[in-house]
Amino acid sequence: MTSPTPQQVLDTLSAGRLVPVVVLDDAAHADPLAAALVAGGLPVAEVTFRTAAAADSIRAMADRGDIVLGAGTVLTPAQVDTAVAAGASYVVSPGLSRAVVERCQEHGILALPGAVTATEIQAALELGLTTVKFFPAGTSGGAPAIKALAAPFGGVRFVPTGGIGPANLADYLSIPAVAAVGGSWMVPADLVRAGKFDEVARLTAEAVALAAA
Asked: Is the entire prediction scored with pTM above 0.90?
């Protein structure tokens, strides 16, 4: 299967408006979780590299061929290599690392580094990026901060993540500069660990409907 280009990945994220942020402790849960996301109408996920099961989980989900996979919490170029080898087509970092971004560019995949200040956004622009993760959104000024930053950075798009849920989702999605919103409320770790994937599919469908409202 041909890997999507960075622009194609961005288009997919923007079309869905939501990016489920997934933490998996057991790679055996990866395939049924992917099935639940697809069933709920959201064939995309960011699997965080916070657990030892991350690479195997990405591989299991990518092998399905029906979901766009990203690796989250990527801190080093070596983790970029691991994520790409597992099948990730985009990489998300909590902050802006030139080394991580450049390794993503070497692999030809989308990099979404965290940037919450004007200085960090300018640094991302210097690396050739036009979309950044705004993290942690809730404690970095939230939707008003994104609106303020979008004014001087007209060509930049944001993927806010952190502290976002059904109650404030519309605040972020109403901002033209927001490409998509990352969140974990539709993939709660306790439901995943319990194998309650029907519930995950239901929560995902509700989230998709809310984003489209």
From this structure: yes
